[in-house]
Design a protein that fits this description.
15 strands, five-stranded mixed beta sheet, about 0% helix, mainly beta, globular, single chain
Length: about 180
């Protein structure tokens, strides 16, 4: 059994640990009590079957700097990354909170779309794309908590790229980054 993470929707909340059942259903490991008593010693719990796209990668806290970028191995569009930012802050001119740096090699030379959405609607996240030498290529910095942040860019096949998710302001939040 292969473990995976499921992001059913941002409205629901976090990505959850789970697995694919033998018939291809996504099973989220979570408890659903099937009885109505208040004790826990005889409760019968079941796994919850949910639909939705499983994340190709669930980022744990990593990649605060370019040198620690999380590797997005085998990126073939579409690709979905789920993560979170634990600190969103700025000093008026620069980001001072959590950064999530990710690195990948483009599987094809074509126009790619990077779309960032997040669960905490009062938070303001931004999205940046860099080349393999960390030169800025594109960014999406909409004012306020406008979603999604989106970057469209033509990537060269076989080249290394960095994508960065960072928060300008707001509360701790989970995000979904779709690469298409």
């Amino acid at each position: 059994m292969h473990r995976l993470f499921l992001c059913a929707s941002l409205a629901v909340g976090a990505c959850h640990a789970g697995y694919l059942s033998p018939v291809g259903e996504v099973v989220v490991e979570g408890d659903t009590d099937t009885d109505t008593d208040t004790d826990t010693d005889t409760d019968t719990d079941t796994d919850v079957v949910e639909t939705g796209s499983p994340c190709d990668l669930q980022l744990d806290e990593a990649g605060d700097e370019q040198s620690d970028a999380a590797t997005l191995g085998g990126v073939v569009a579409p690709y979905l990354v789920c993560g979170d930012l634990y600190a969103l802050d700025n000093d008026g001119s620069a980001y001072t909170g959590d950064f999530d740096w990710m690195v990948f090699v483009a599987d094809q030379g074509s126009s790619w779309e990077f779309s960032l959405t997040w669960s905490e609607t009062a938070s303001d996240l931004d999205l940046f794309l860099f080349d393999g030498d960390a030169n800025s290529l594109a960014g999406s910095v909409t004012e306020g908590a406008t979603q999604p942040e989106q970057v469209d860019f033509i990537l060269d096949q076989g080249e290394t790229y960095y994508v960065v998710v960072v928060g300008w302001d707001g509360l701790v939040t989970e995000y979904r980054l779709e690469l298409n």
